[in-house]
Specification:
The complex is a heterodimer of chains A (about 525) and B (about 550). Chain A has about 525 residues and is α/β, with parallel strands linked by helices. Chain A has four domains: about 80 residues, Ubiquitin-like (UB roll); about 140 residues, 2-Layer Sandwich (Alpha-Beta Plaits), CATH 3.30.70; about 40 residues, no CATH class; about 150 residues, Dimethylsulfoxide Reductase, domain 2 (3-Layer(aba) Sandwich), CATH 3.40.228. In chain A, about 35% of the residues lie in helices and about 15% in strands. A five-stranded mixed β-sheet of chain A has the order 2-1-5-3-4, with helices on both faces. The longest helix of chain A has 19 residues. The radius of gyration of chain A is 29 Å and the shape is globular. In chain A, about 35% of the residues are buried. Helix content of chain B is about 45%, strand content about 15%. Chain B has a six-stranded mixed β-sheet with strand order 5-11-10-14-12-13. Chain B is of the alpha/beta class and about 550 residues long. In chain B, β3 and β4 form a beta hairpin. Chain B has 26 helices and 17 strands. The chains are: A alpha/beta (about 525), B alpha/beta (about 550). The interface between A and B is large, with 62 and 61 residues. The structure holds flavin mononucleotide and iron/sulfur cluster (SF4) (2 copies). Flavin mononucleotide binds next to β9 and α24 of chain B.
Chain lengths: ~525, ~550
Amino acid sequence: MSKIAYLNNKPHEIEAGETMISFARRALGSDSIPTLCDAPNLEPFGSCRVCSVDVALEKDGPAKTFASCHTPVAEGQYIYTDSKNVQRLRKNIIELVLTDHPLDCLTCEVNGNCELQTVAARVGINSVRYPEGETHLDREKDLSHPYMTSDFSKCINCYRCVRACDEVQGEFVLSMAGRGFDSHIIKGLDQSFEDSPCVSCGACSQACPTAAISDVFQSKSIANTQKTRTVCTYCGVGCNLEVATSGGDIKGIQAPFDAEVNQGHTCLKGRFAFKFYKHDDRIRSPLIKRDGVFEEATWDEAYDYIASRFRGYQKEFGPDSLAGISSARCTNEENYLMQKFFRTIVGTNNIDGCARVCHSPTALGMQRVFGTGAATNSIDDIKDTDAILVIGANATEAHPVTGAKLKQFEMSGRTSIVIDPRRTELARYATHHLQLRPGTNVAVLNMMMYYIIKEGFADQSFIDDRTEGYEDFCDALFKLDIDEMESISGVDRELVKSAAVAYATAPNAMSFHGLGVPEHSQ
Amino acid sequence: MSKNLGDLGGRKGVQENLFSKIGEAAMATEGSPSPEEMDRLADEFLVGKANVYGTATFYDFLKPENRGKKVYVCNGSACLCAGTQEGLIADLKTRFDESEIGHMTCLGRCHENGAFHYEGKNYSALGEGQLGAALKGADEINVDRYEICASGEAVLTANFEGMDAYATLLKGVLAKESADVLEEVKAAGIRGRGGAGFPMGVKWEFARNAESDLKFIICNADEGDPGAYSDRYLLEQRPHSVLFGMIIAGYCMKAQWGVLYIRAEYPESFPIVEAAIQDFRDAGLLGEDINGAGFDFDFKIVQGQGSYICGEETALISSIEGQRPEVRVRPPFPAQKGLFNKPTIVNNVETLATVPYVIKNGGAAYAALGTEKSNGTKLVSLDSYFKRPGIYEVDMGTPLATVVNDLGGGFTEPVKALHIGGPLGGIVPSEKIDELTIDFESFNVGGFLLGHASVVCIPESFSIMTYLEKLMEFAAVESCGKCFPCRLGTKRAHEMLESANKGNYKIDTELFDDLLHTLEEGSLCAHGGGIPLPVKNALQYFGEELKQFFSKEGSHV
Ligand SMILES: Cc1cc2nc3c(=O)[nH]c(=O)nc-3n(C[C@H](O)[C@H](O)[C@H](O)COP(=O)(O)O)c2cc1C
Ligand code: SF4
Ligand code: SF4
């Protein structure tokens, strides 16, 4: 049986566990209730109170006021999203905010794209009635950092930046300091962005509803109206990006909230490191090397030249005289086209990519074991797993968006095993860090398997149904000398054993490996 | 509140909590932790440096401004109305540099006032000689004397029968099924004495039903209400009752830890409570598998660092975790996700101290006391304007007039209003004293709040406007700052009251009304939400006295 609650006296079906604001947004549209502290990728926080609604138990009955962002909706409630009482409250809250906010909208970098401005207009503020009091308008700008900027005279204390740094990036660079009216955002030990441990992911600046935290590109400026959705090519995570351009120039990059891969987050590379696209060092036209010297050419010339030389070699020496190599920095689609071109047009299987160096052992190994040379889980599964094992991967550095998700997982205290010679960021937060000697992965993994089987945690029905050669495998494993494994790897056997048991006893476990593993086979 | 910070704090457990370590670091460096130490703690606890800094700067006794403070003068409302503090400060200035004099809000010496804190002890300076003696560390000056009396059944103020009697009683209970013990507590129907009046047994049941192998019972001994000292009385004179209550709570809800969060302003309480814990330990009533009942339980004392909002239960939980003590949204309720995101119950000192009586006499005996909806007895604390200041235990439903006239012996000088139930309680004009009885309902119906039932007298000679100004200053200074209405609203309200009181400005009545509405309806917690009550009481009952400060449009004079 579906359950009903009322929005402005009209019945709507409610969903289990939803808050009043998500209920209203679903039923009445995404901007049915104004708010300043709520953000799509953050937990409900309840600081601004602008989302308050009136709630009665009967139609037009006596109402109480609740903040809709963190109050669960219940069956039979009558929710009034725009009552006189609520309108008065919202207006008066915003008036209070404006007693401590510069009134220089027209020259502000986010003019026209400021959530405070939008909400103020919506609730209809025309003047601030308060007598002059203490303000924080004299706070100084922080322009110390190559990317991040702040101007806390514009801060409205919504904590979105603090929460983004914590809940999304997991870095804890930002916090509120002081208390009451004196509370203010700090970075590190009240340092500048440059001196703070900021990793420049830009999550705070994207989360900030005003210009209080921004970036050197002024990414939130409304002047950048042209938006193009694309995929980041820096690493394999594949973050969706929204690139703002004006006159063909990139002005700033944001991460769309509806992107499945990165849900409104990206790292400093994807968000800020785009200036190379127009760097002076880049070639701007095709170059053809003639007599040992590169000469500029038009695309037509270049294509004609490629075609004629390729055809020449093809005819003279056969298609296998040609080979193509493409790059992991290209998209999957581009790589696909490249191999298609070589196989069908050139007629050779001589096609490779730079990933050969790093990933061929992975692809081969995974194919042999699982039947396909690709990951068997999606990143989203991190939400559902009970344990993770990370080996030879420094994901917070190399794949920061996935790394941040792994770190979030680790912080929850669930089993996390990191096998790495270095005390990486993920190792710092892991429940088990097996700090092996470089190049001794096999020894440690053998020890783990040894203990899992020895301690009786092997899943016999899985083994019976889906594996072959298990006895041989066990024989080989049990012949191993644990003393030797321990001395090769330098990892205490008790630590390995406890990690093995934790991994084996987790209802669901996921493992991650990075280049620290396959590159050892080189 | 941050889930991550709660989980990370949980890795070290309550014994090794970050908050206590920041406190220790502050002690080691003249009252505020050094940057190096904050950096080190951040690393140790895997949190951000910003988190440690953000926490340290929240508290009066951890923030950098606290460095070098040697003596702290009470600026609570009772000392304010008593008018003792200006002279005290003047005297102290002859002995200390001004920068060495700080403030503490309510040392719980409301029965004699003139209170100050020096080198870990509280004193009341009632004469020049006493101040000198106190500063020399004379112990007899540190002793405070006040009336303690039960007008009816002595539930809380009954004599402590000794550890042996308690041990026998407790062992008897631990032999019973915890579910049956809980039923007994529920039958008593005791409602929380910390302010909200929620039934204790029901709360315990929520936590009992929450699945977790780690749970906490926290005793809220942060008695921050200026004018209140009944929890201090219990902590210092009946500590065993409080601890007994916590052990029973732990047994009923299957908690392993009892955490006492005691405010730093009550330094004398710490050694007393520690000694009482030792008594339980010596009797074999702490540790693992207590009395063979398969029940593990131990205590941890956490010292507050000077912040009123830490009395609010979710702020208190964040405080112990070393997070900034900002009020959390509910749900999740602490009974589901509290300390370190584990099921947690927070109960007031006085609430917990009733448990021995309930265990000994049965829930029904307790329920028979008091009124139908407000069971049991209540401690009322009276300040120094009473002829017999002290702690009085009365049956719920006892007329306020009985407390004021018969127990308290009336006033030493004309009093125009009583501020009852702390800063967020109502201001009761003298003419209403005869209409009220000590119970939740009577105060609600009258438009006031029983709260913790502390009574602070506002004498005839004291300006109500000044009282409101100081009250709003307290509200602003103690606001956690999380929600917009309270962070900004209490500040602006204080500014308006202050400048109107100085005669520079007349407050715009409509704006003021809007502001009170915003605080009341919009605030996240009862701090911002509750402060309009006494202000409205004052406007209603002292309109004549206040009208000179208001005008229809508001204007500068
Ligand atoms: C601003 C504020 C301050 C509070 N201070 C205290 C306090 O000092 N002591 C206390 O026991 N409860 C205090 N409370 C109430 C607690 O949040 C909580 O309701 C109480 O500790 C629950 O215990 P009880 O059920 O035994 O009353 C305060 C609440 C608010 C909103
Ligand atoms: S800097 Fe921006 S996001 Fe952070 S609290 Fe201020 S206004 Fe909110
Ligand atoms: S009402 Fe005040 S004290 Fe309570 S959450 Fe809001 S800012 Fe904090």
